[in-house]
Amino acid sequence: MGAVIETRALTKTYGRRKSRGIKDVDLAVEEGEVFGFLGPNGAGKTTTIRLLMGFLRPSGGRARVFGFDVWRESVEVRARVGNLPGEFALEDRMTGEDLIRFFARLRGVKDLGYAHELAERLDAELERPMRRLSRGNKQKIGLIQAMFHRPPLLVLDEPTGGLDPLVQEEFLDIVEETRDEGRTVFFSSHVLSEVERVCDRVGIIRDGELVEVEPTDALVDKAFRHVRLVFDGPVDPRPFEALPGVEDLKADGARLTFTLHESPDAMIKLAAKHRLVSMEYERPSLEEVFLTYYGQNGGGR
Length: 301
Ligand SMILES: Nc1ncnc2c1ncn2[C@@H]1O[C@H](COP(=O)(O)OP(=O)(O)OP(=O)(O)O)[C@@H](O)[C@H]1O
Known about the structure:
ATP hydrolysis activity, elongated, Alpha-Beta Plaits, alpha/beta, disordered C terminus, ABC_transporter-like_ATP-bd, transport, ATP binding, antibiotic resistance, 31% strand, Rossmann fold, binds adenosine-5'-triphosphate, 32% helix
C-alpha cells in the first residue's frame, strides 16, 4: 500500500489578514512507519495536525488520509485515526474510566483489555475525576483515548509533553509495538532524543514550510562530524582552519577540536603529516542537526 497520509501544497492561513499557518506542505507518510514531525513553537505542527483531522479547513492544497479527503470525508478519516490533540478539554467530573467507556461505546469497542493495559503501563489514574488530575496525568488519559482501540493510524500532537521520563520511555515502547503490528504513527515533537529513538523518518517544519524530510539515520549521517585530534606535540592550527568545511576550531597546544562539514579526506591527509596520538570522529545528535536548520537563536542557516 502507498501513503497513509498524503498532502499536496497543503496551506492554511488564519483570519482576514491571512497570517501564517502552513504553506505548500507536501508530505507522504507510508504505512507502518513512525514519522516524527519536528519544529519549534509556532512552526506549524498543530496547524498541520488539525488539518489532517479535518478540524480546520485548508486555505489551499489538499490532504488525504487512507485516500479520504480530510475535509470533505473527515468522518471516514476520524474512524481510522487515533488522535491526541494539542489541547483537549475533558469533562471535569468524569473519570478516565468514564471517558474510556464513553469512547468505547462511540467506537463500538467491547473489549477494554488494551485500555486497561495501557493505563497500567502509563501509570494512569483512571478512577479520579479529571479536574483532580495534573497536566501529565490528563495527558495519559488523552493517550489511552487515542490508542486503546488499536486504530491503523495514530496522529499525536506532542504526546510526551508533561510525562515524566519513565512514562515517556514506556510510551515510546508502545509506539514501537504499534509499528511492529504494522500500524502507522505520526507525531509532533520538539524532544529530539525521543524522535531519534523511535522515528523511521522525520520531517522538519520551519516558519510553516516543510524544509526537510529524511530517514532519521540519513539526516544525522549526512550532517557534520565532531573531530578531536591529539598530536604528540604542538601543531600549527592555521592549515586546519583553512580546510574547506572546518568550523569552530579550537586549538590547545597538541589538541585540535572542530566540526567538519565536508568529507574527512583532506583533513586526514593533513593530520597524517604529523604524529597523531588519537583521533575522535563523531556523529552529532539529532538535536545538533536540528539546530543547524534553526540556528542557536532560531535564525536558520
Ligand atoms: N487560530 C489562530 N489564529 C491566528 N494564527 C494562528 C492560529 N493558530 C496558529 N496560528 C499561527 O500559525 C503559526 C503556526 O502555529 P501552530 O500552532 O501550528 O505551531 P506549532 O508548531 O504547533 O507550535 P507549538 O509547538 O507552540 O504548538 C503560528 O505563527 C501561530 O501564531
